Predict the 3D structure of the following.
Amino acid sequence: MTTSVKAQSRTAAGWKYFLRHKYMYLMLLPAIIYYVTFHYVPMAGAMMAFKKFNPMLGIWGSPWAGFTYFEQLFAMPKFYSVLWNTISISFIRLIFGFPFPIIIALMLNELKNQRFKKIVQTSIYIPQFISWVILGGIMVNLLSINNGLINGIIKAMGFTPIGFLTDEKYFVGTMVVSMIWKTFGWNTILYLAALSGLDPQLYEAATVDGASRFKQLLHITLPGIMSTIVIVLITRIGSLMQAGFEQIFVLYNPGVYGVADIIDTYVYRIGLQEGKFELAAAVGLFKSIVNFLLVIIANKVARMAGEEGIY
Amino acid sequence: MTKAKRTLALLTAMLTAAALVSCGGNKTGSSTPAGTSDPATSTGSTDSGKVVPIKWLTTGDTAAEVIESGDRIVAAINEKLGIDLSVTYVPEGNTEKVNVAMASGDFPDIVTGAYGTSATQGWIDNGMIIPLNDYMANLPDLNKRLSEEYSWTAQDGQFYGVPFITQYSSANALITMRQDWLDKLNLTYPTNLQEFKDVMTAFTFNDPDGDGQNNTYGYTDVKPAGNFTFVFGAYGREYADFALNDAGEVIPWFEDDCFVPGMTYIKDLWDSGVIDPEFMLNDNAKKEEKFFQGQAGAMIGALYRHVTRIESSLQQLFPEASIAYGTPPKGEDGSYGMNLQGKSGMFTAITAACENPDKAAAFIDFMLSEEGNNLVRLGIEGTHYTVASDGSIEYNEEERAKDAFSPNSWAHALAWGTFYWPLESGYLPENEPGRDRALETVELASDAQLPNLVKQKTSADIEYGSACDDVYNQYFSDILTGKYTVEEGVQKLSADWRAAGGDKILEAANEAYKANAQE
Amino acid sequence: MTAHATRHSNKIKTSLGSKIFDVCNIVILGLIALSTIYPFWDSLVVSFSSLKSYLSTNFHLWPGEWSLEAYAYMFGNETLWSSYLNSIFVTVVGTIINMLLTIMTAYVLSKKDLKGHRVIMFGAVFTMMFSGGIIPLYMVIKDLKMMNTLWSMIIPTAISTYNLIVLRNFFNALPQSVEESAMMDGCTEVGVLFRIVIPISKPAITTVALYYAVDHWNDFFSAVMYINEQKKWPLQLFLRSMLFENDMAYASGGESLYLLGQPMKMAAVMMAIIPIMCVYPFFQKHFAKGVMLGAVKG
C-alpha cells in the first residue's frame, strides 16, 4: 500500500517535472524520432550476422546461423595479421595525428597578422576536399623512385632513393603522415572555434599580471579548450577499428600487404563486396563491439578526470 | 532512475504517434518514381490489348547516354512487345546497389547483376528469381543463348537467367610497343622470349629516346601483380583457369610445368632491371601514361577501339612515334598465349515479383535477337540511318542525338553492358576511324586467348575464389622481389592456396570437369 | 577588441624568445600551407592544360600549353547544371534541417540538471558505433516513400552524432551565470536559447554548419543507393559517373569518357571542390570575430 502511494506520488512528481520542462522535452522529440527511425529500427539489421539471410523471409524470418559467420571471420587465413595492422596503423595515427591539429590551432592563434592567418587557415583545409583517388595519383608522382620530386631531392643530397610506397619499412609511415596531412586542417577548425570562445578578459588580466605567452597558453588557453580536446579524443579512440580504407586501398600493393593490409581492405579484396551480407554484418558487428568498448572506457576515464565526456 | 525511465516511456509513446504522422508527411516531399509511364510511349501500343509495365534494374553501360522520356527506340520496343519499359541504370555500374535493392525486397521485373557471385547465387537459392525454362520454347533467341551458347550455366537443368561472360570468345589485349624505338635500335617486334628479353634490355639500356640519360624501362604493367600470362603461355600454359596433370586431374594452373620456368624468366627480367620497378603502383591509366611519356617502351595495351587513342596519345609528346603490336612471343616449342577466357560477367533474370514473366522473357528475347540488336545499334531505318544503294550505312547524327544514341554513330544506351559488348559482337560503326586496325587487334588477341578448362564458376569458386587469387598475388610479388626462391615459393603457394579454400575449389572443379567430359 | 589585439598593443617590451617564436611560427605555418596547397594547385593546373603539357611532366606548376577543352566539354553538358542545382538544394536545405535539429537537441542535452539527458545522449552515441548496415536502412527509406527523392539524401542524415557532441560541448561550456541572469529577466528556457545561446555561440554553430554542408556536398553514396533518375543526381555522382573508370572500359570496347584524359578528370575535380571551398571564407568570418561574451555579461 505504502509503496503504491509512494509510486503514485513519484509519478505525480515526475509528471509535474515533465510539465515544467515540457518545451525542453518537446525540443528533443524530433531527435528521438530521427534516431529511432533511421538508427534504432534499422539496427535490427545487425542480427543478420547471426542469420542465414533470405530476403524472401526478411531479416527476422530468416533461419538462425549461430556464430557461423564469426567463425568464418576468425578462421580467415590473414585475420589476425590484418587485425594487428588495423590496430597499429590506427594507434600510430592517433598518437601523432591527434595532437597535430591542436598544435597548429595554437600556432595559428599566436599569429599577429590576421591576413596571413586567414590564408594559412584556408590553405590547410584544402586537402580535405580532394579524394584519395586523386591525392593517391599525386602522391605516386611525388614519391616515385625514378622521377619523383621527393626522391629527386633525396638523390640530390646524395642519399639512396626511398621506396615510400613499395618498401614495407616506409609504407606505414607514409600512410600516417599523408593521412594526417590530409585531415589536420579540417580538424583544426574545431579547435579554432573553441579558441575564439575564450574570454578575452582572462588574457587581459594575465597580461597585466605579467604572465608570459607560454604561461598564458598553459593556464588559460589549454584549459579553455580542454573539453573539446577530450571529446575529440574519445571519438577518435572510438573509431580505432577504422584505419582508413580508402587511402590504403588506393596506395597499397602486394609488396606491402604484410604491413598495410587492414580488416577493411582484406575483407574487400577477398570478395565481400559480392553480396556476402551476413559476413559483412559479422565484420561490422565485430568492429562495432571493439569500438564501443573503447568508447565506454575512454568516456569513463574522462568523467573520472572531471570532464563531461561525450555522454 | 525510475523517474527517468518513466519519462522515457512517455516520450516513446509520443514518438510512436509522431512517427505515424511523419510517414504521412514525407509523402508530400516525394516526387514520381522512376517507373512513371510516359504517355508518348504507352499510347503507341494500343493494338496489343493491355500494355504491361516492365521495370528493369541494371548496371548497364556506365558511359551510355541518358534515356529521356519519349525516346523513340524505347517506344519502338514498347509498341512491338506491348510493354511499357522503364529502365533504371545504376550509376558507376555499382552492383552493390542492385544487390541491396534485391536483398531489401525491392524487386524490379527484370534484374541484371554480376554473374557468378554470392549475391546472384543467393537470388537463385532463395527463390528470388524464376527459371526461364518454361518460356524458352517459344522464344528462339533466348533458347539459342541458353541452350546452345551457355548450356553449361544451367543449375539442375534450370536456367535462372541470361549470362553474358566478358571476353568469352574475344579478347583485345596485346603487348604494345614503341615502333619508333624498335626502328631506332634496329630491332623488330619480338617473336620469341629471347628476342623479347633482348628488346626489353635495349629499351632500358640503349637510350631509345636518345636523350643521353638512363631513364627508360622496357616494360610496365598494372597492380596488383601485373599480367605476365604471355610468359607462361610461351612455356606451354594451356588453360585460363586450371591445368591438367598426367592423371587427367584438375590442378591449379601454377602447378603446371609452365610455372617454374616462366616465373624464373620473369624474375630474370625483374632482376636485370628492365621492368618498371613501380609497376605495382600503376592503375590502367597510370600504366598508359608511363608509356605515353616514354618512361616505358612496352605495356599490355587494351586495344580494339583504343588502338587509335593509344597511338594519338603517344604522339602528343612524340609526334613521330607509332605503336607496334602482334602475336605474343613464342616459346621454344612454338606455344604462345596471353589472354584468359573470361569467367565472370553479367546475369539478367526475371524476378519472382514479376507479374508478366512471359512479357519480360519476350523482352529479353527481343534484346538478343538480330532485329533487336539492329534497333539498338543502328536505330530505326529511315530515321536514324539509311542504307545506300551500295549497301553501306549512312548515319543521321542529328536524329540520333534526339534519342539516347552516343555520338559518332555509336549505339543506343540499351545496346551494351547487359547482353553484349561491342568487342564480343565484333561491332564497330562503319565510319569508325581506324576500324581495320581495331578489328585486326581483336583477331590477334583472340587467337592468343587461353580457354577455360572448366567453364562453370562453381560454388566453391564463388566462395573462395577471391581469397585464393589473393594468395597467388601475394606469392607472385614475394617471389619477384626475392623473398622466396621460385621453387620454394611455388611450394608454399600450393600449400597456402589450398588452405585458403583451394582444396574445395579443386574438388568442385574436378567434379565439374568430369561431368562436362561425360556429356 | 580581440585578445590578441589587446595583448600586442601593450607596449611592454616583447622578449627576444617571443620574437624568435613568432618568426619560426610564421615560417613553419607558411611551409605547411604551401604543402597543402600543392595538390590543389597541381590539379588546377592540369585541368587547364592540354594533354600534351600534362604528359610532359609529373610536377605541374603552370600549364605549358593552355587548354579550356575540358571545361568547355563539361559546361556543354545539361546534366551538369541540373546536378549543380540538386547539390545546392541538398546542401542548403539539408544543412538548415541539420542545424535546427542539432541546435535544439544539443541545447536540451547540455542541461546537466535535465532528467534523462544522459540516457538520451548515450542513445545517440550508441548509434555512432552500431548500425544495421545498408539493407534495413534501404527498407526504411523505401517504406517512408523517400526512394528516388532528394529527401533521401537529407532526412536519413538529419543529425550527425559527432556534430551533436561537438555542439553540446560548446553549449556546456557557456557560463551558467549568463543564462541564469536572462532567466531572471523573464526569459523562458527556449527564449534563452534563441536570445542568448545562439548569438554567443556563433563560432561553434558555424563550425558545425560547415561540417554538415561539406558532408552533404560530398555525399554521393546515398544517391547511388536511393536515387534512380539521372536528373535527380547530385553533382558528385554526375562527375564520378563521367570519370568512372573500371577494367570493363578497357576490356569491353564500350564507350568511355576517360578517353579524354587526365585534364578532363581534374576539371571535374575542380568543379566539385571550388564551389564548396568558396563557402569557407564566408564561414571563416565568424571564427575570427571574438565572442561577445563580455558584452553580454556587462
Residues 10-48 of chain B have pLDDT under 50 and may be disordered. The two ends of chain B are 74 Å apart (CA to CA). Chain B has two domains: 39-168+344-377, 173-340+451-518.
